[in-house]
Write a structure and sequence with these properties.
By secondary structure, the chain is α/β, with parallel strands linked by helices. Helices cover 33% and strands 27% of the residues. The protein is globular, with a radius of gyration of 18 Å.
Length: 239
């Protein structure tokens, strides 16, 4: 589903070279729920932006659903992102001047789907997250938890192969966060492949596996079903 092999991301200035990721390897199989954790500055965000085809990497190999992303044109990358990926952001990233249904339809418009098909997919996604009655509301008229559910509906509408979640409960209170995580877990039980970046250990234990990053490297992998921690100074494919 998602395979990175010895991926590195380097930022360079005239006098400084900084590694955001260093020889990072991970293999997320179809239907898995994987949490990527680590302290601030550990490389979590860089990993997510590369996984989301929003940023290029310096070296290594990255295949998404069997497609080698190296050498793709901008249009090929955009198409792959739109067809294969769904994003759930901490800040929701909803357009304030669009209604709920219009926000969910945005990525579908890029696919140039017929209006009737878009409407069907939007309605289906809203029903899935329990917001059918909010279709014509604007983001400012919703609670934080409801806005995050709209963001999840937008991610689901295009039937992505992989959901990428960036601190999905970071802007929510405890009760709202619990509801959003329950929805994410339901999606996983129904077969969704999910990679969630989080700094919250209570969220990480709800994934099947936890990949821990420190200074851009894999510091350990936890099998949550068995609570086994393996550490390695050299990242391995298939973590």
């Amino acid at each position: 589903m998602l395979t990175m092999t010895r991926v590195s991301k380097t930022y360079r200035t005239d006098i400084v070279e900084t590694y955001a990721l260093r020889d990072f390897s991970i293999n997320v199989r179809q239907g898995e729920f994987v949490a990527v954790t680590g302290p601030s500055g550990s490389g979590k965000t860089t990993f997510l932006t590369i996984a989301g085809l929003l940023e290029q990497f310096t070296s290594g190999e990255f295949k998404l659903d069997g497609v080698d992303v190296r050498g793709l044109t901008d249009s090929q990358t955009s198409r792959l992102r739109n067809e294969k990926l769904g994003f759930i952001f901490q800040a929701f990233n909803l357009l304030p001047d669009l209604t709920v249904e219009a926000n969910i339809a945005v990525p579908l418009r890029y696919r140039r789907l017929p209006r009737t098909e878009r409407d069907r997919l939007v309605k289906q996604a809203l029903e899935r997250v329990g917001l059918s009655g909010r279709a014509l509301h604007y983001p400012a008229e919703l609670s934080g938890g409801q806005q995050q559910r709209v963001a999840i509906a937008r991610a689901l509408a295009g039937s992505p192969r992989l959901l990428l979640a960036d601190e999905p409960t970071g802007n929510l209170d405890t009760q709202m966060a619990r509801g959003v995580m329950q929805l994410i877990e339901e999606l996983h039980r129904e077969g969704a492949t999910i990679v969630m970046v989080t700094h919250d250990p209570e969220l990480a234990v709800r994934a099947q596996r936890e990949v821990r990053l420190v200074d851009g490297k894999v510091a350990g992998v936890v099998d949550q079903s068995q609570r086994i921690l393996s550490t390695s100074s050299e990242p391995r494919v298939g973590l």
